[in-house]
Amino acid sequence: MHDLRIRNVLPGLLARTAIYQCLHGDSLSGLYSVDLRCGQPPASAHRTPGRRGGATIPCMADQTTNPFALPCAEAPRAGLHEVNGCRLHAEVRGTGPTILIIGAASDDAEMFRPIAERLTGFTVVTYDPRGTLRSSRDGWPCDSARHADDAAELLHALGLGADAGGAHTRADVFGASAGGIAAVRLALRHPETVRRVTVFEPGYFQLTASGRDLAARVGAQVDRHLAVHPGDWAGAVALASDAARVEQPGAEPSAVRPSGLLAAPRGLDWYAARGEALAENFIRGDLPITGEPVDRRALAESAADIRFAFGNASHPVFGEIARELTRVRRRPGSADPAEPDVIDGVGHVVYFAPEPVAQYLRRRCA
Q1: Strand, helix or coil for residue 98
Q2: What is the CATH architecture assignment of 13-206+291-365?
Q3: CA-CA-CA-CA torsion for 233, 66, 19, 29, nearest 10 degrees?
Q4: pTM across the whole model
Q5: Which H/E stretch holds residue 17?
Q6: Which GO terms describe its biological process (predicted)?
Q7: Pairing of strands 305-311, 123-127
Q8: What is the pLDDT of residues 19-28, one digit of tens each?
């Protein structure tokens, strides 16, 4: 049993170590800035303007290995910002109207980089949420309300929030998965900060019968696994992913191979390794948030422009949740849509399909 536990835990430990070394080198004090994609070291580290004086750190986010990164795309302006009692690593790309992308605790800024790079003509903000990789773990794990407050304060720190720099500005927001729950809370708690809020497949599993059933099955499998293999976060995530597997479309019945909800498609080993490195964040940070209830009354009465979406290649439970949220949200006599948006060719993990997601956001935020 001891040997089995080592074999289960070791891959995740190695992945976390490799990513930490790639991001930080031997120590934080040894960081330097370089654009590895084009081989041009900049004269100095990128500085991100902010009303609260965000500290400068270099852009060192696996710039040669992200499989969907655009060659020689503009490097982000990256920085650490003191936000709501923690330090958040944030990356800002481009100029134009602001789009804030909120991922789950198991998603870091680099995972959303391919989507951000494709949104030219916008100021796109991605970040490591509280407790994730380059951000600090102060006060983590936490609920979606705290993540929402972090997001609002981060926009202010970047000079992109409401009344930033003396001018009233609002950001478009895209939240995915557990990050979608944080996006809803952001819209409800800080409506002055947001313009349009697009929520993709938020894990409000308690909202539907199928969602409650899926959450119960996933929770039971995770609990049993961790009772036998404590600390094997990657193994627990694999079980959770398999419990919500999605059959591959277009295959003959005898040839269908179920695919885990969170499993990286073939050839995306970079994402698979990064997912293992962030497995603890999924189990300890994201799963508890998916147990939160939605504030139906606040959602129905909010003046914010909130729209829900799901992918047609995802698990059916997310379409059901999106439809129920859209029904709750629709205000009599308003222009609120009767149905959620559907993004073709996209599963639950949006950064596995950056092109259609970026195209959708471009239309939504135009």
Answers
A1: strand
A2: 3-Layer(aba) Sandwich (3.40)
A3: -140
A4: 0.82
A5: helix 2-24
A6: acylglycerol catabolic process
A7: unpaired
A8: 444 444 333 3
